[in-house]
Amino acid sequence: MQIKERIERLREELREHNHKYYVLDSPTISDYDFDMLLKELQALEKQHPEYDDPSSPTLRVGGGVTKNFETVVHEHRMYSLENSYSKDDLLDWEKRIQRILGDVPLQYTCELKYDGASISLTYEEGKLVRAVTRGDGVQGDDVTTNIKTIKSVPLQLKGNYPEKFHIRGEIILTLDGFAKMNQERIANGEEPYMNPRNTASGSLKLQDSGQVAQRPLECLLYGIIGKDLNIADQFEMLEKAREWGFKVPTVARLCQSMTDVLEFIEIWDVKRHELPYETDGVVIKVNKLRNQEELGFTAKSPRWAMAYKFKSEQVSTVLNEITYQVGRTGAITPVANLEPVLLAGTVVKRASLHNADQIERLDIREGDTVFVEKGGEIIPKIIAVDLTKRPANSVPTTYIQVCPECGTALIRNEGEAQHFCPNDTGCPTQITGRIQHFISRKAMDIEGLGAETVELLFKEGLISNYADLYTLTKEQLLPLERMAEKSAENLVDGVQASLQIPFERVLFALGIRYVGETVAKKLAKAYKNIDALKVATIEDLIAVDEIGERIAESVVQFFNNETNLGIVERLKSYGVQFSLSEEQLENQSDKFKGKTFVVSGVFETLGRTELKKLIEDNGGKVASSISSRTTYVVAGDNMGPSKKTKAENLGIPIITEQDFLTMLNS
Ligand code: AMP
Ligand code: ZN
Hints:
Elements: H1 3-23, H2 31-47, E1 71-73, E2 83-84, H3 87-101, E3 108-114, E4 117-124, E5 127-133, E6 139-141, H4 144-147, E7 164-173, H5 175-187, H6 196-204, H7 209-213, E8 217-225, H8 234-243, E9 253-255, H9 258-271, E10 279-286, H10 289-295, E11 305-309, E12 314-326, E13 332-343, E14 346-352, H11 356-362, E15 369-373, E16 381-385, H12 428-439, H13 451-459, H14 474-477, H15 485-497, H16 503-509, H17 517-527, H18 530-534, H19 538-543, H20 549-559, H21 562-574, H22 582-586, E17 596-600, H23 608-617, E18 621-623, E19 632-635, H24 641-650, E20 654-655, H25 657-665
């Protein structure tokens, strides 16, 4: 088969699979097979840049960086919606409509109101050409590069679509996806995000689209604007959008009267709690586009649509006790233990109180009657105290001074909201938490060992740090509860197998605060082995790209601790990987040490990512903008004229890809 045909075939197949997986939720091939097809396409595209396509499924992985988001004026203004809160509001609205339209029979389309960040997508000849945020409604930011990484946004449409149109929707994070992101952040010792909506909208403005690609964002669509669309009503519009490949939730309903609308609202006010994403209401739209046109817009919103806002569910209950949890990194979280109460379909017994400030701000006390709400967050929160019910003998809450697990005096760093237990090597919860992190999938991935077993092993005195895992024997394990011959064997084998885990993951597994997966990779690459990293100073560390002071301090602190050093030495003696492998090292040198490169334009033989990797592997730094600190600008085709002038003005040598390769191989 011709290369070009193969490329096109692969793109077609991948598009189809993307659609099945991300839009229809019904994949027909395995993730592995999908990855294989994607890899094949990536390789072919690299060898044959002449067949480049800005809609290729390979763009889904991201990589493009946007420094400044360009402001774009919307071709059609993006309006707000008027809000309503009751049946009477809706009946009034219907009357107003009928005053304008006369007494015509009215149908409505009811949709859920998705709670995320509004987006307007422009398609020309079936391809996504632009994605712009709502901004102030008149103009927004061009976030096309980032939007292209969202898998449910089609880059190439299917079926019989109009030549040009805009389609509007909402970028959201599913509740599951949001929870997973937060688990990872907590595992990395970072503060969790507050709610899915703000996180979704923040994601659109990340500069590195590669990071956007990793977030479980989705795009739910609800409206099309354009000429000669050949569509008569709102409900049909949704169906058409689905046909062309967009993700349009099927909960939308065509209603024959306001009575139907009210029923839809009643049903979803309850059922919304089962949805995989958040909704804060229902949007009701006059169905016929002909009628919509006649109704038109007010200064702020369409007259033909109305948002009905669900009441955020609130209940009041008694706060029995405030307890305190200790995390793996020693962070203390106060928890409100409530008199169990039914809220939004679930029984709520606990609510997070976040930190000492929060308790003080709301003056929350044990014995108080409090108002609890299920908002954006998965864990319900306390929004206020019912002071009329405060008992006479009530006393203000004094925040704990010592760790509830180990009794050590807590500390609170300048500028941080959270209290910490500093006893990281002696505090039982921190110890088991660290071991649990060590064995987790993205770290040492030890099979046959789970969180509960870790606790059991610790309680039985068999382990007190993660190095102890490597001395466990089958004989020690067998007497334990629920430990059969086979599971003991699996555990020991799993521990042994982890000796193969590469250095960067070992580094992540150590659980150094703020050293997440990405930082661990950066450090492994920069220092190549633990002995070099161990003696790095704060200044050394900060010099590494993307390592800030906070991380640097945390790393130095970790290796200044005798206990940690001892554990690392033991791990080393058992054969845990503490340096990059031969293979990883082979392609690395210090050739470009101290040199900073800016890469600009399109390249012939190397991809941009590959070029950057070569620079970094050989000790160089890649910067995104030209400054007096730049050593070389590597320029490909289409280098931006402003970059060129800047480099020339600063007297920075501009070299070609060939020059670069010659330098590398000299
Ligand atoms: P507001 O920002 O409260 O004025 O509400 C208007 C926003 O609701 C619009 O910008 C839309 O992005 C968003 N929205 C969410 N779901 C829908 C929907 N089904 N139909 C129309 N707008 C929606
Ligand atoms: Zn403690």
